[in-house]
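User: Design a sequence. Structure:
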């Protein structure tokens, strides 16, 4: 369950910014593991790990959550767990865990969302049931480094998770979605847009429905590192059938495997039964 404050804010604005979720004992090994992955020479990447180092807006280190146990356990962190239970009505499925890395030289990531009013209106859902918020597809961003005002990084359009109209393409960042315009730079936050300044150990939560992107990363001496944990509901196949290849699955704890499996609507996963005291 969410607290009443969290529920009100999340429903209204479409995001939650939880501060200081990770203790120093959780944060330090997670930061060290991320550092090892990011600095690993490509020829040493274990099977199925790796990144497209040519990508111009953000480097996504594939399956970063599985690189180290200190990252893997964040998929079921005690602070985010109750929110995971409310959003999925206790039917969670973990379906992606990329390590995000954003440095000087990366460009603007134009506004986008995993869902639009004109796309899959019957599939990806955000709704209220029994006084609780339900959402079929959402993201937990676990921040491993600090973002200060003016640095750049994640931007969101609060309220856009409930949009009834598609955003006019010229709105907010004119020209940013044109393929010819790959060097587009934006470091401003127009009225209505919110730049997320999270600190290491914070968690930012949003539905895939929320319009989001990233400002050009400004600092030369600091980068942005965050684990991107994606979830949906266990009974809906909205993404990939098998998002994790065998070489990744073999590294994971039984609880993580349970969390990432598909399951019928009328069954609770073992991890949920144990943690929620369901027999
Ligand atoms: O750079 C960011 O924080 C945005 C990443 C993003 O768009 C995503 O994970 O869906
Ligand atoms: Fe995105």
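Assistant: Done.
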């Amino acid at each position: 369950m969410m607290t009443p404050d969290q529920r009100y804010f999340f429903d209204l604005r479409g995001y939650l910014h939880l501060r200081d979720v990770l203790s120093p004992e959780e944060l330090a090994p997670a930061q060290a593991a991320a550092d090892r992955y990011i600095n690993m020479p490509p020829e040493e990447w274990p099977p199925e790990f790796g990144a497209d180092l040519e990508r111009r807006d953000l480097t996504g280190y594939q399956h970063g959550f599985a690189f180290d146990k200190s990252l893997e356990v964040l998929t079921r962190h005690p602070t985010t767990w109750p929110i995971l239970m409310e959003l999925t009505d206790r039917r969670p499925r973990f379906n992606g865990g990329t390590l995000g890395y954003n440095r000087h030289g990366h460009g603007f990531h134009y506004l986008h969302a995993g869902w639009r009013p004109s796309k899959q209106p019957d599939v990806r859902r955000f709704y209220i049931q029994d006084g609780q918020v339900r959402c079929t597809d959402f993201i937990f961003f676990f921040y491993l480094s600090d973002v200060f005002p003016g640095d750049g990084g994640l931007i969101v359009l609060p309220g856009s998770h409930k949009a009834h109209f598609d955003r006019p393409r010229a709105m907010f960042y004119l020209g940013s979605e044109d393929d010819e315009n790959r060097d587009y730079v934006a470091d401003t936050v127009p009225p209505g847009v919110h730049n997320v300044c999270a600190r290491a150990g914070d968690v930012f939560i949003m539905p895939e429905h929320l319009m989001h992107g990233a400002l050009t990363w400004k600092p030369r001496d600091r980068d942005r590192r965050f684990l991107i944990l994606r979830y949906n509901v266990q009974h809906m196949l909205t993404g990939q059938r098998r998002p994790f290849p065998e070489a990744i699955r073999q590294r994971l704890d039984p609880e993580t495997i349970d969390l990432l499996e598909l399951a019928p609507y009328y069954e609770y996963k073992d991890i949920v039964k144990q943690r929620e005291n369901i027999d």
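The chain has one domain: 4-276. The domain at 4-276 is CATH 2.60.120.620 (Jelly Rolls).
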